[in-house]
């Protein structure tokens, strides 16, 4: 199927790589279609195995008590994985555990992988389930020790052999190559430039020959996202151009996704990368403000983003990317809610508006509807677009912690503005004492609003 494959399966104390540990490893290494090594071992997880897991796998605490630790078998395992594509059923699970175990030993695992779940989905798309149990039933495969590592490895190999009989070797090789492809780096990028990119949240910057970046992106997994740019199956001509122009890569790790989003937004606005056209485009954001006086004409006025201040933000409705969009939305709302376009300022003239003649306005312009009621209906029509006032008396902090890297960031906000991101007490104290310079940014507003809805924030007192 592939030149060198190591079929591998693990048994573990649970489903979370950061806290659970490996109890059994089994693998079969195949080179050019020939099995060259078969190896299995119990592993002392150095923690207790929960009763449910003991019942599921048949591996007890007594069985692993005298077994080697992962540190003692890590070298042998690395030899069996060297130069091979690691194949597993739901291989992300096995790969995640191995990365965590090697990380505890101070090593970084870089391994090409292929998943037999994805292989089954691509070859048998008509099937609803692609679990190992479903595959066993579908392909009439048997085992005496389901949920033991070597038995599950043998089931994977038997499934691949069955698929080869169904589709032929050539088709199987094509699909396997697609699933396990190794991104090829651009000519200007050496392997050492990407070796240290972490699998953690953050922002990456692609540079060409100049001092300003070509492109800035963010991800919850920096390494995966950066390497995806070099996958060779670019989904757009822009991605192809970026890949061809890169000469240097920088990255900045964050504790979580919010930090990555905030940093990306700030850097794009500051550095204006040529390939971030969608985010760097000059916008004319604006919002509607309703007059307090129900008899005012016009009843609504447009407020530009730079004119938004803390004292009026709760009275605004929007935002809209352009004046044209704002007017179009307002026209649609007026038509749907039978509001008067003339009183709104969307139509010139005096007296009854044209819409009232078509029975599309309830007649506030002609004295048929009280203007106070029309004013109230206007507020109701726009209610879904209302911006929120800052709900706190002072600054707040939103904490992000990455258990895998140990990195903790506190993002400080006031009046919907991002004041600072800090990771020590001195910087936090400085951010708390700093004076907020209000500059409304809709991107930040949306990020903070979403974060507040999730909870976990705390108020900061001076």
What's the short version?
Helix content is 39%, strand content 20%. The protein has 462 residues and is an alpha+beta fold.
Protein described:
The protein has 4 domains: 177 residues, Nucleotidyltransferase, domain 5 (2-Layer Sandwich), CATH 3.30.420; 89 residues, GIY-YIG endonuclease (3-Layer(aba) Sandwich); 100 residues, no CATH class; 64 residues, no CATH class. It is built from 19 helices and 15 strands. A 5-stranded mixed β-sheet has the order 3-2-1-4-5, sandwiched between helices. A 4-stranded antiparallel β-sheet has the order 14-13-12-15, sandwiched between helices. It has a 3-stranded antiparallel β-sheet with strand order 7-6-8. The mean pLDDT is 91.
């Amino acid at each position: 199927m592939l030149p060198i494959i190591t079929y591998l399966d693990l048994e573990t104390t649970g489903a979370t790589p950061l806290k659970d540990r490996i109890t059994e490893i089994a693998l079969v290494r195949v080179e050019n279609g020939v099995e060259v090594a078969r190896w299995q071992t119990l592993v002392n997880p150095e923690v207790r195995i929960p009763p449910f897991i003991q019942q599921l796998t048949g591996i007890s605490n007594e069985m692993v008590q005298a077994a080697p630790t992962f540190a003692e078998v890590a070298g042998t395992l690395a030899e069996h994985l060297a130069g091979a594509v690691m194949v597993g059923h739901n291989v992300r699970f096995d790969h995640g555990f191995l990365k965590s175990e090697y990380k505890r030993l101070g090593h970084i695992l870089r391994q090409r992988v292929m998943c037999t779940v994805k292989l089954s989905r691509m070859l048998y798309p008509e099937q609803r389930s692609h679990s190992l149990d479903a595959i066993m039933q579908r392909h009439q495969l048997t085992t005496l020790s389901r949920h033991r590592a070597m038995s599950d490895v043998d089931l994977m190999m038997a499934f691949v052999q069955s698929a080869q009989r169904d589709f032929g070797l050539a088709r199987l090789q094509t699909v396997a190559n697609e699933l396990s492809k190794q991104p090829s780096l651009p000519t200007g990028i050496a392997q050492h430039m990407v070796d240290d990119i972490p699998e953690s949240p953050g922002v990456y910057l692609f540079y060409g020959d100049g001092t300003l970046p070509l492109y800035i992106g963010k991800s919850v997994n920096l390494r995966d996202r950066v390497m995806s740019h070099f996958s060779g199956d670019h989904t757009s001509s822009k991605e192809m151009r970026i890949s061809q122009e890169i000469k240097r890569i920088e990255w900045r790790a964050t504790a979580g996704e919010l930090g990555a989003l905030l940093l990306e937004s700030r850097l794009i606005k500051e550095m204006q990368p040529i390939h971030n056209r969608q985010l760097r485009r000059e916008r004319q954001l604006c919002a509607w403000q309703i007059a307090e006086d129900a008899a005012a004409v016009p009843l609504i006025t447009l407020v530009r983003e730079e004119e938004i201040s803390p004292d009026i933000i709760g009275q605004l409705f929007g935002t809209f990317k352009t004046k044209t969009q704002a007017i179009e939305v307002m026209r649609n709302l007026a038509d749907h809610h039978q509001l008067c376009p003339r009183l709104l300022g969307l139509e010139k003239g005096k007296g009854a508006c044209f819409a009232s003649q078509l029975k599309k306005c309830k007649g506030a312009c002609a004295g048929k509807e009280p203007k106070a009621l029309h004013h109230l209906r206007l507020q109701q029509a726009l209610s879904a677009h209302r911006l929120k006032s800052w709900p706190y008396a002072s600054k707040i902090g939103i904490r992000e912690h990455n258990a895998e890297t140990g990195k903790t960031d506190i993002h400080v906000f006031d009046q919907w503005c991002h004041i600072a991101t800090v990771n020590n007490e001195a910087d936090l104290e400085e951010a708390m004492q700093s004076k907020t310079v209000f500059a409304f940014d809709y991107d930040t507003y949306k990020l903070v609003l979403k974060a507040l809805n999730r909870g976990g924030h705390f108020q900061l007192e001076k």
